[in-house]
Predict the structure.
Amino acid sequence: MNEQNRIGKYRHYQRDQWTSEMELPLFPLGTVLFPGMLLPLHIFEPRYQEMINRCLDEKLPFGVVLIQEGKEVGETATPHAIGTAARITRVDRKPDGRMDIVAVGTKRFRIEELNHTHSYLTGEVSHFPVLNGDTRLAVEMAQRVRPKILEYVELMTKATGVQLQLERLPEDPTTLAFLTAIALQVNVEDKQRILNQAGIPQILDLGNYLLGRELQLLRYMVESQDVVKALTSGPTGYLFAN
């Protein structure tokens, strides 16, 4: 396959200003957003059209939170407590009111209280800062992660047949930590575990563990592909042992 997939569609972690506590429109989704991650969304439900229009009019971010109970469409879902604020960077409006938007994750927050006073969910949230990104431990953990993520992308390309591209790995441990979180193809529960970690050393440590786990699986998949190719290389297309 000639399809080109770029891993690491991220922007450097932004240390924006944040009040100690604020009300934030919330968008419960079946995905986890990380700081620096780009998130395309199709907005079709009237309540979220109202929410996005408010964010655009008032230049507000909205919070992306993983659904803990419930569904994306229909009744209001119960979200996890830790999420990421999203800033809208592009809007494509449709004649019927639907919108295609692109948002970028900025900073993490913790939900202190949920509010149901609007058609969409809002919450009183406090900043959940990223700690210890400039420490020696963070630098050491980044050095452990760097070769693993390079191997991970290489093996993902071999296992899937899709040519993946990884932008140059950042030197900054904070940016590398979130790039690793974005690139890892793991379930949303593991993604949320990463987002919940207090500091960069902890995020990198968990990312290092998950990379190790996934690399074992990918190596097996790639080796199995080689075996399958050997078994199907005969003149009739199949070779079976006697």
